[in-house]
Amino acid sequence: MKRRTGGLRAVKGRGKRVENKEKTKRAILRAALELFAGKGFYRTTTKTISRKAGIAEGTLFNYFETKEDLALYFFEESLSEIIQWYEHDRRMKRAALPEKLFGIIEHLLDSLAPYEEFIGAVYLRSLAPASKLSPFSLQSQERHLRYLRFIRDILAEAEEEGEIPRLGDLGAHAFAAFQVGVITYWLQDSSRGKEQTLALLDRCLKLSTHFLKKGGWDW
Amino acid sequence: MNRNGKRGMLGRGFQLGKLGLSLVGSYLGYQAQNFLLGEGEQRKVRFHQQASRRVRDELGVLKGAVMKLGQLLSMQSKVLPEEALRELSDLQMRAPGMHATLARAQFKAALGKYPEDVFREFDSEPFAAASLGQVHRAITRSGERVAVKIQYPAIRSAIENDFTLLRSATLPGRLSGHLPTGLVDEFQKGFLEETDYVQEADNLDFFRKGLSGLTYLTIPRVYREFSTDRVLTMSHIEGEILGDFLKRKPSAAVRDLIGTRLAEMFDTQLHWLKKVHADHHPGNYLFRPDGRIGLVDFGCVKRSHFEISALMHCYLERTWQKSEAAERQFFRLIFGPKVPHKRARKVLPVLERLCDIVYPRDASANAVVDFRDPKLHELGSQYSWHILREKLIPPECGLIGRAQMGLHHILYELGARVNAKEVWRQVFAAGGIEERKSDALKSS
How many CB atoms lie within 10 A of CB B62? Predict the structure, then answer.
């Protein structure tokens, strides 16, 4: 009996520790994002981040070794946020496929909008093969896989409904590549409110769904 | 920017080409079927329906100016077969639009906030679609019912692309002189003006003030705090569009009353305000069973230098019959200062016959014009054809002509009988409007 309570307390304590750790991680990320939005990715130092987050610089390194780790954490968090938003949004449940996919990218862009400069910097960094942000790093691959599964499930639903023909895993890969293209376009879009990106996104998704529906692979 | 524009233009070119190809394809299919099976009237009707549905779908996807062209075509009652017309008239209100998520995103792109952060309630399903956007119902935080018009993203560059294509497509017509270059430019200017909702808000204010004497007319009020150049929030207006209104079978008296009021509105705008609501497609009018009228969509407004009172004087007095100088003056009024006199004279006989119907000379004659009169239509199309053949279209009259054509189309659909002469007499004599006119001019 006693042992059991002790065990429970231990689990509870560990739970609390994990929770606290997550809390600090989020506080650091919030501080960093604020600085990135104001000063830019390159000019923000770990020193200023730790000062803003109200922790010692040494503590910061316990959580994030480099600024790249911070960026990775940011992308993981925003992917989790999108999945959660998608699963709880009532409109997305009954929308047609082009609208669902539009909603996902639009939601992503909306959350990225304040950190445009930061995203641009991360894009450049990810081109370096040794970078943790490179699409071939294990961390990036893990996140990418989670994203592919998320999209794959949405496409599978549309396949079930007969909205599009069976695409297999290729559909999710194609959409991921498309999303990279859209973000690149978005970064360079100087129209007000980035409405050119909205138009591009809408037309591409409507047309591709239309063509897939019409002829599948045979057209 | 330029590069993107080019890509869009190629895309549109491809789609237009596809439209042409797919139409030709099914025409050929029809011919082959015809050859094998012999012609049946039933099949012909069905075929027309299919072809025009395809036209409508493709135009809907293209949006922008090409769709406007579709709308213009659909107003040419006698040019297209009845079935094609019915399909095309769907374009006027029910154009394929943005899904709720896109409309919401575009709202934010324009106003910086999502609609649910601005309004107490916002209906994500649009209740009306226009070629440049769509309209959603909403309720403001203070509880007022409003209509929110949201523009399709990047429609402006889409229109510019369409006109680049239109210019090359109309090159033969322009070279032969049947289509003045100025006309295409004027249409482009008109369409581009329609994309600026700030301009439209100014127009709404101008006409609300200028036409306030016409108590049967309602024009929406603008909520500037929720409007930009791409989103326009207006007070909600009750009423039904023409097609739905006619389904209720309104009495001839109500239809005549509405017809007379529409004519009065048109004459008042031309004569007193010197500005005309030039987009007379039926979706812009809302009718109520007691004869009240709501006028919405003020995107296309034409400032007019058209001297309607001088022209009406000519029509009523047949001045051109009095001397050659008077005849020249009359032609200048209709076709502009550089009118080729000889060619204009060829149009005169048809014009005189039209005039005898619309403005009968004999004071005792029944001056009521039945807009369903086939004779009127026959003369009307003869007149348009003559003008085209004699190359008499003055560029500055393009949009006024479009407005008048639209008005006549509505009067035809309505089956209204209007005493045009009397309407003009009353508008001209309405001294009370004088003050409103100066008010409106001041505010503009």
Answer: 20
Whether B109 sits inside 8 A of A194 (CB atoms) is: yes
Q: How far is B108 from chain A (nearest CA, A)?
A: 8
pTM: 0.73
Cβ contacts of A195 on chain B, cutoff 8 Å: 106, 109-110, 153-154, 230
Q: Do B108 and A196 touch (CB under 8 A)?
A: no
- Residues in chain B with CB shorter than 8 Å from the CB of A196 are 4, 153-154, 157
Which of B102, B155, B198 to probe by mutation at the A interface, max A CB count within 10 Å?
A: B102
Q: Which of B279, B297, B370, B373 is catalytic?
A: B279
Tokens of B389: 């053949």
CA distance B207 to B219: 8
- The complex scores an ipTM of 0.84
For residues B113 and B204, is the Cβ–Cβ distance under 8 A? no
Could you tell me how many residues make up chain B? 444
Using alpha carbons, select from B218, B201, B221 the residue that is nearest to residue B145: B221
Identity of the highest mean pLDDT range in A24-28, A147-151, B352-356: A147-151
- In terms of C-beta density within 10 A (0-12 exposed, 13-18 middle, 19 or more buried), how is residue B22 classed? middle
A:B CB pairs within 8 Å: 57
Could you write out the DSSP letters of every residue in B108-143?
A: HHHHSS-GGGT-SEE-SS-SEE-SSEEEEEEE-TT-
B108 with A110: Cβ contact below 8 A: yes
Q: DSSP assignment of B72-106, as one string? A: HHHH-TTTS-HHHHHHHHHHHH------HHHHHHH
| Residue B279 is among the residues annotated as catalytic for this protein | yes
DSSP classification of residue B272 = I
pLDDT in tens, B203-229: 999 999 999 889 999 999 999 999 999
Contact assessment for residue B66 and residue B8, using Cβ atoms and an 8 Å cutoff: no
Q: How far apart are CA A118 and CA B32, in angstroms?
A: 62
The domains located in chain A, with CATH, are 1-64 (1.10.10.60), 66-219 (1.10.357.10)
Partner-chain contact B154 A195, CB within 8 Å = yes
